[in-house]
Amino acid sequence: EIKTLSLSLSLSLSHHIQNSIQTRVVGGDNAVPHSWPWQISLQYLKDDTWRHTCGGTLISSNFVLTAAHCISNTLTYRVALGKHDLTVDEEGSLFVGVDTIYVHEKWNSFLVRNDIALIKLAEPVELSDTIQVACLPEKDSVLPQDYSCFVTGWGRLWTNGPIADELQQGLQPVVDYATCSKSDWWSYMVTKSMVCAGGDGIISSCNGDSGGPLNCQAENGAWEVHGVKPTVYTRVSPNTDWINQSRLARPPKEARESWGSVCT
């Protein structure tokens, strides 16, 4: 079941995407297995085979954040959790069906705005060493220029190339508004409510990375998910209230302690 959900969101735009719209984490490295335990693989069924299509972030025991453009109402989906290598059976991993998918009702594929979706899992998952919920940033927090963040995913290794077997990670420093809004970057398309990252022309996200997290380490050492990767980044911090309080997204009472929240 796919539904639309109304909320107000901002987008964060990544300059490097201008040169790699069809673009694993390009130029990235193999991640340490299970070092990003909130990362999920969104998979669809085709010809009796499950195929990776997008990333996502586990934010509670039964909800995943991903990108709206990853969702089609003609496909059947499942979520793979606790994975590192998509080609092998791994201890600590599991696959869960999908109950409901909520797509932002103002998702605009032409302008790439409101590119966010929330997936309710068919059943809550048990957290473990390989499966954890993400930390969320403080509401409306803004990261400074060059703040180190990492993109993660199993996307294509190069344009039109194969997807990665093992989870990839790549450094994507934050780019401030003054730089990102320059005419040779995103110009008028970027606003102060958006956040940009990357742009070195070497490391970027790619097809198959969409929907996954932009991971940034807080001063207290906790890793926070500041973005949802489409071909541009969807900013999380303005929406932490919705993520935590939305009636539709609220997990069962017994699971609320594991709900994604600001980490202290």
UniProtKB/TrEMBL annotation:
GO terms for molecular function: serine-type endopeptidase activity. Residues 25-248 form the Peptidase S1 domain. GO terms for cellular component: extracellular space. Keywords: Disulfide bond, Hydrolase, Protease, Serine protease, Signal, Zymogen. The keyword Protease applies. GO terms for biological process: proteolysis. This is Peptidase S1 domain-containing protein. It comes from Spermophilus dauricus (Daurian ground squirrel).
